[in-house]
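BUG: 3D viewer hangs when loading the predicted structure for this chain

Environment: internal workstation, default settings.
Expected: structure renders.
Actual: progress bar stalls at 90%.

Input used:
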Amino acid sequence: MEWTLYSFFARIRPMIITYNGMGCVKVTLGERVLAFNPASKDSKVKTPRFGADVAMVSLNHPDYNGLSSVTKSDGTTLAIYGPGEYESGGVYIKGIGVEEIIYGKKMINTIYSVSLDEINICHLGALNISELKSDAEEAIGNIDILFVPLGGDLLDSSGAEKIISTLEPKIVIPLYHGQKGEAKNQLDGLIKEIGDKNTKPIDKLVVKKKDLDGKDGELIVLEPALS
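Structure tokens produced before the viewer hung:
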């Protein structure tokens, strides 16, 4: 009975997703706040300051490693820097390391697969390859909401479409990088590949578990809170 009640409330409790530019995403569900890849003070993109229960860094680079902007004043933020398995207050996290050449250097990009309230979200970090090894795909598992980096030194629209097709998420949220004109071109290309020509950016996504039923690769564009 407890599991049935939990499942019921999980299906009706909303998850709120906001996009803060580059790879930075804030996810709020109830009192739990997650931060992915906040930008540091040395980045051209500035991340809004907020307190996160869990903060995840995909890449040791100023555009991704600004943990100080999302660390709680009481020091209770769980900071995750790379591959491994983690748990915090009912949030289950897998970090999957992928070796890449990015920004001209060989680096480890960490993909994060996160489960909370029966919703599975995946942030591809600074991914710039359109094919993952089978063990990485297996570790990621089933995805409800997928954050895909787009533009700059990362995926182009065709590469993004390819990995989306492989991972088969229910909802796709592009995170667009690079110069505004180039980023817009890649975003427009992805909309043409998998979206609707009438797709318009929204300020935030509010979604419940039950809202995901029947969705298959729906593209949702979020307007960056800061850029």
